[in-house]
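_Per-residue structure_
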Amino acid sequence: MGRPTKENSLTPEDVVEAAIACLDQEGEAALGVNRVARALGIKPPAIYKHLDGNPGLQRAVALHIWRDYLTLCQQHIAPLSDPKQLLQVGAQTTRSFAHAYPARFRVMSHYQMRPTDPEEAEIIQASLHFFQAALQLYDLSETALIDVMRLVNAALYGFIIKEQSDLMTLDRSTDASFEVMLEALLVAIDYIRSR
């Protein structure tokens, strides 16, 4: 028996890793079956054995990025216990991730997670638990926790997206504004906690 062909030895993880490499090098436009197949030196139909075309590829990449991002955040906040420090470190980790991997951040933040999909629901729950642990919000109801998560995500992602798009043109340090925003978020979280 001869050696298996590249197409036959390919795994879904190989496809996702190649897609992320293309994404890092060329941006979101490279996140397609044809481009990834070229990077792997295979024909596009070989990818369809593992993923359901472009939507399946984009989903797999987004979920992979989300898992990596949550693991990174967890590593950075693990040694901390002060809620203010936890928010600051978690937010700075998110911003640093977005600066280091702008295309990954855009793919991750624009992917709509569906609570009805078991794999995506797992990531949603991991995010909720991360927020709960990171901000020590164990006393919040589930609806209040969702409100906090939406507030923090909207503030962080909105800030980062505006920053990455070079839309912060006023003469003020974005680092200083980011710190002020984090202080304001702590006040807002206390308000939600007290309701």
